[in-house]
Amino acid sequence: MKSSPFTRREFVRYSLMAAGYSLTAGSSLLAPLVHALGKVPTKLDDGESIFTLSGKVKINGKKASDSSIITANDTIETDSNSQLIFVVGKDAHILRENSKLILTDNTSSLEAGLQLAKGKVLSVFGKRGQGEGSLKLKTTTATIGIRGTGVYSESHQDHSYVCTCYGQTEIASLTDPSSSEIVTTTHHDAPRYILKDGKAGSLIEAAPMKNHTDEELMIIEALVGRAPPFSSLMQYNAPRRGY
């Protein structure tokens, strides 16, 4: 990866300026997380996949390293106290501990589908061009159609959690076609639980915003050369991970 021309403080100021944010918000919002990661997030070079890796991570059953390459047709697993921040094509992800994410490809470099078999993942997805196909995320209880957006999802045995951080998703129950919803948000406006069992047509319920942050979204968008479309961080009490 190319070395960044910015110091950590300069990166915070630059990234907020690019997104139209107040400079005075920078150090309090991003600097602690950048410091914890140990490096400044910038767009990864071609041929690079991993921004940070901590703990035990496997790619297709083999131990991963910082130099491992992740394709759009791989299976990634994290152990306890482990985390992976990585890029595939136009998309970037933070895979939390005790998680399993199965990718399926559309082209040689673009993800067409993701199955979160277990665990938690925060993702940002680039818009697909003509001929590049659509994108779907599958959890234990739901399918989520993705349209160039940011999404946080969790897969549990009896329910899933989906926060459309910004953009639009189409959420549907795996077991009940009558439980479906198109969600359009600008800033974590409509998180949802998708239940495994319950009354037909009522398996999608309102949920609180939890377990992911705006700072994390800013970091993974930076890895693919973008910024999240928040209107103002100065007027928003940034959410904190609840675990």
* Second CATH tier, the architecture: Sandwich
> In what range is the share of β-strand residues?
35-45%
Please give the oligomerization state of what you see.
single chain
User: What does the overall shape look like?
Assistant: globular
**Class, according to the CATH hierarchy?**
Mainly Beta
Task: Kindly describe this structure.
With 243 residues, this protein is mostly beta strands. Residues 1-28 and 231-238 have low confidence and may be disordered. The protein has a single domain (8-223), classed as Sandwich (Jelly Rolls). The two termini are 31 Å apart. Strands 1, 2, 3, 4, 5, 6, 7, 8, 9, 10, 11, 12, 13 and 14 form a 14-stranded mixed β-sheet that branches. The longest helix is centred in the first third of the chain and has 11 residues, at 8-18. It has helices spanning 8-18, 26-29, 31-37, 214-223, and strands spanning 50-54, 57-59, 62-63, 75-78, 83-88, 91-95, 100-105, 111-124, 135-138, 142-155, 159-173, 180-185, 192-195, 204-206. The chain has four helices and 14 strands. 13% of the residues lie in helices and 37% in strands.
Layout of helices and strands:
Layout: H1 8-18, H2 26-29, H3 31-37, E1 50-54, E2 57-59, E3 62-63, E4 75-78, E5 83-88, E6 91-95, E7 100-105, E8 111-124, E9 135-138, E10 142-155, E11 159-173, E12 180-185, E13 192-195, E14 204-206, H4 214-223
Parallel strand pairs: 8-9
Antiparallel strand pairs: 1-5, 2-3, 2-4, 4-7, 5-6, 6-8, 7-8, 8-10, 9-10, 10-11, 11-12, 11-13, 13-14
Features of the shown structure:
mainly beta; 243 residues; Jelly Rolls; 14 strands; single chain; 14-stranded mixed sheet
